[in-house]
Amino acid sequence: MSGMTIDLRRFSINTATLGYQAPLSDTIEAVARAGFGGISPWRREVENENAPGLARQIRAAGLQVSGYCRSTCFPGASKREWLANVEDNKMALRFAAELGTKCFVLVVGALPPGSRSLPDARQQVADGIAALLADAQALGVSLAIEPLHPMYAADRACVNTIEQALELCALLDPHATGRLGVAIDVYHTWWDPKVHDMMARTASEGRLLAFHVNDWLVPTADILMDRGLPGEGVIDLGALTNSALDAGYDGLFELEVFSSRIWRLSVSEILELSSRACLSITRPKEGRLNSAT
Amino acid sequence: MSGMTIDLRRFSINTATLGYQAPLSDTIEAVARAGFGGISPWRREVENENAPGLARQIRAAGLQVSGYCRSTCFPGASKREWLANVEDNKMALRFAAELGTKCFVLVVGALPPGSRSLPDARQQVADGIAALLADAQALGVSLAIEPLHPMYAADRACVNTIEQALELCALLDPHATGRLGVAIDVYHTWWDPKVHDMMARTASEGRLLAFHVNDWLVPTADILMDRGLPGEGVIDLGALTNSALDAGYDGLFELEVFSSRIWRLSVSEILELSSRACLSITRPKEGRLNSAT
């Protein structure tokens, strides 16, 4: 298939892809050397370290921080648990600000143990995000709600579609301050018949804060740890990245692959495979998607 | 929690729940003896047997046929494959008519090998259903599109929400003849923020043809074979069955549980557990759902 590739500098490496094998300071250098344009670290790599120093190192390496992963889940079995979760996220927001990240990724959480009420969990999530917004404003950090695949609705996130995330944004941030938006991950959203429309709507509302790429494998052996690199699975990444770019997305495409298979490789092997995988994404020429799209 | 249970006669046993351990003629008697009001057989149990005889036996046992499982997937790698799939489904429809089933369940299929185009698969599905409608009309069999969980979008069904199924119905059967509707399975739809609204809409459009119950386990060890019996997992079955009944659903609640764990038990053990599980579903009194719903 002929088409346009996307410059490697337009891709960012989510450090989860590398299996957290090395300290972040080493990972920063490896990612920059491999030619990527950004990095997205996890809290476990930052919170016990010298965050301002890491931020300086990332900038010196010429990398953007496409995201910072991730929120503590909001819902709790009690009001006290919920409050503790909110406080924990406020703490994380301060690190996010120090890192100079594009956004703090909200994996919002789901049913507390013993609960069967998604409506209650969703209310706790809305209240939790509302409780973070003032800090986000003051710190200049944007919050990116990440809708997770419906197979995680019980235990990871009860926000499961882009449409649902946008409704939360409209409710909590009606004036679109720029401090609340959406992180779209193709793994979680590729199946959605509305994915292209919702991506365009997210961008047009100024809320497309992050875009994660990876692939859906057939068969999927494990519900959590069996994602593929772009090209290994069935997601039409050319069409999806094309929609994002057509809609005016100007951020990075962040490679986030949880895979026990890939984690067996070394950091340099994973970065080499990642680079090839990212460059294999081929946008249809002149916005010409396949005829049935 | 206090509330109303649902009469066991209002439940039907999908024979997949029993692991196909016995010939259908034995299963019919066992299901009736256990006090259920219906049965939903699979094609493998019918197509090489005396279908009219089985139908008579089911009626004599006082059971309804809540569904007939299931369609051959529509999408093919070629037009010829698609045509063969349609023909296969036409054949199955004749058995469905002989059984006197409430509906023929359409598991519509997804990406043919080598394809990454959901739009193409979805078009093949729409064309396939359209190609069955005349036969369905002539035979007096209703077609029930079953939206499957998005985790099956690649390999089992590219119709993944009730809303999407209703759009197909409106497109293909705009006058709501009664011959095209939806099979709602809580396993596939419980996570959907719109599930209650869409269930009400399905019923009000006269398209709620089947309602499957089971449960979502946390954790889910296997993407296909790890469903739970009602009460074992996190789905709020009281709220969902309540919505269906409130919306005027007058069909059976069909227990469909694919579980390698449960299949290790004998048919009588499974029926005993099933009966208890169905009777454990407790509708909130007076339609009083939990306050956040």
Explain what you see:
Chains A, B: It comes from Pseudaminobacter soli. Chains A, B: GO terms for molecular function: isomerase activity. Chains A, B: Keywords: Isomerase. Chains A, B: Residues 28-261 form the Xylose isomerase-like TIM barrel domain. The structure is a homodimer of 293-residue chains. Chain A is of the alpha/beta class and 293 residues long. Chain A has a single domain (8-287), classed as Alpha-Beta Barrel (TIM Barrel), CATH 3.20.20. In chain A, 38% of the residues lie in helices and 11% in strands. In chain A, helix 3 (79-99) packs parallel to helix 4 and helix 7 runs parallel beside helix 8. The model of chain A is unreliable at 287-293 (pLDDT under 50). Chains A and B meet through helix 4 of A and helix 4 of B.
What is the topology?
Two copies of one chain form a homodimer.
Chain A: E1 11-14, H1 24-33, E2 38-40, H2 51-60, E3 64-65, E4 68-69, H3 79-99, E5 104-106, H4 118-139, E6 143-145, H5 162-172, E7 180-185, H6 186-189, H7 195-204, E8 208-213, H8 237-246, E9 253-255, H9 267-279
Parallel strand pairs in A: 1-2, 1-9, 2-3, 4-5, 5-6, 6-7, 7-8, 8-9
Helix pairs in contact in A: 3-4, 7-8
GO molecular function, one term (chains A, B): isomerase activity
Keywords (chains A, B): Isomerase
Domain Xylose isomerase-like TIM barrel (chains A, B): 28-261
